[in-house]
Amino acid sequence: MPRPESDPGLPGIGKRLVTVFFGMTASGKSTLGQAFARDCGASYHNTDRVRKELAGLQPTDRRPDQIAGGIYSADFTEKTYHAMLDRARKDFAQGYEMVVLDGSYSRRQDREQVRQVAEEIGARSVFIFCTCSDAEVQFRLDGRARDPEAVSDGRWEIYQHQKATFTMPGVGEEGTCITLNTEQDVEVMLTWLAAHPLLRAGCHGAKVTAPE
C-alpha cells in the first residue's frame, strides 16, 4: 500500500468531517468503518442497522427480500439514507467533529446528497470506496451466512445485481474519494487511512472533541 502524500494546504482540514465507507455487499466497508470510527472517536451509523430499526426489526433479523423489494425497495432505501443524514446532523449538534456513515451508496445522487448536507452544516465529506475480489466476496458471504450475529442480508445474487447497477465513483468525485482494496489487515488499513491527507487531521480532531 503506497504511503499517502502529505498536503498541508488542504482546505478545511481539522474541521467537521463526514466520512462515508461505501461499496458493494461484503466489500469490507462495515468492518473497516466501525474500526475507523472507534479509533477516531467518531459517531458511526450503518444503513443495515438503521434500515431494520426503521422497519421495527432487530439488527440480526434476517430479511431475504427479493432484490430491490421489501425493506430494500428504492423508497425504503431513500428513507434510510435520509435517516442517516438526520443522525449525522444531530451528532454534529451534540459536539462530534466526525461522523462515519456506512452503506452501499451505490448511486451518485445519494453520495451527492451527503456532500450537500455536509456543506450545509459546515463539514467536509470524504468517501472511502471499499473493494475486493469476487472470490473474497464469496468467502465473506459464506461466512456471513453461518453467522447468527450477522446484520447484513447481502448474498451472492445481490452482489451480482450491484455489479450490474452500481455507479462507480467518477469525474468530479476524485478529490474527495479514496479507493481501498480491503483484502489487507484491518490495522494496516487503519494506519494508512489515519495518515491520508484527506483524513489525517480530521481523525485527530475527532479524538479530542467527541463527547463521552
What does this structure look like?
This protein has 212 residues and is of the alpha/beta class. The chain has a single domain, classed as Rossmann fold, CATH 3.40.50. It has eight helices and five strands. A five-stranded parallel sheet has the order 2-3-1-4-5, sandwiched between helices. The radius of gyration is 17 Å and the shape is globular.
Secondary-structure map with pairings?
Layout: E1 17-22, H1 29-40, E2 43-46, H2 47-54, H3 74-93, E3 98-103, H4 108-120, E4 124-131, H5 134-145, H6 156-165, E5 177-181, H7 186-195, H8 200-209
Parallel strand pairs: 1-3, 1-4, 2-3, 4-5
Helix pairs in contact: 1-7, 2-3
CATH class: Alpha Beta
Overall structural domain count: 1
Q: Report the CATH architecture.
A: 3-Layer(aba) Sandwich
Q: What level of helicity do the residues show?
A: 40-55%
In whole angstroms, the N-to-C terminal distance is 34 Å
Going by helix content, strand content and strand pairing, the class is alpha/beta
> How are strands sequenced across the largest beta sheet?
2-3-1-4-5
CA-based shape: globular
Give me the strand/helix succession: EHEHHEHEHHEHH
| Distinct helical segment count | 8
CATH homologous superfamily descriptor: P-loop containing nucleotide triphosphate hydrolases
| Overall pLDDT | 88
What amount of the residues lies in strands? 5-15%
- Reported by name, the CATH topology is Rossmann fold
Specify Rg, calculated over alpha carbons: 17 Å
Largest sheet data: 5 strands, parallel
The beta-strand count equals 5
